[in-house]
């Protein structure tokens, strides 16, 4: 089957099939840029770096907070700590957060989705 491109949102839970070259593959589709993998589906995410992420970057996570117990944040090639403002924002939503490089985040997300956990991922694209 030929790989398809998508225009910003694919409904449903999907594992990340591949990452790199500035994007991701999932559900027989490809996307250039960062993504949010949420309980409702995978959507484009404007973040281009793990540096400088703010609570406003996680509004889509807030909208689905009741269905998320753990948010895995992939910050790119390197681990970039989240700001206290972001950590407090997620804590107020009662969402635990784990931060790691994007590759490890995608792999961890896939395992937890396969286990049926209430997990989401915010993944910064890597080259």
From TrEMBL:
SUPFAM superfamilies: MTH938-like (SSF64076). It comes from the Bacteria. It holds the Pfam family DUF498. Gene3D superfamilies: MTH938-like (3.40.1230.10). InterPro entries: MTH938-like_sf, NDUFAF3/AAMDC. Signal peptide: none annotated. This is Mth938-like domain-containing protein. It comes from Chelatococcus daeguensis.
């Amino acid at each position: 089957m030929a790989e398809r491109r998508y225009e910003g949102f694919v409904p449903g839970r999907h594992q990340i099939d591949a990452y790199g070259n500035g994007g991701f593959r999932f559900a027989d589709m490809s996307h250039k840029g960062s993504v949010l993998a949420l309980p409702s589906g995978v959507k484009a995410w404007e973040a281009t770096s793990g540096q400088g992420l703010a609570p406003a970057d996680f509004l889509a996570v807030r909208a689905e907070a009741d269905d998320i117990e753990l948010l895995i944040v992939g910050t790119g090639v390197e681990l970039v700590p989240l700001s206290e403002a972001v950590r407090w924002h997620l804590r107020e939503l009662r969402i635990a957060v784990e931060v790691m490089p994007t590759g490890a985040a995608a792999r961890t997300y896939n395992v937890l989705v396969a286990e049926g956990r209430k997990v989401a991922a915010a993944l910064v694209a890597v080259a």
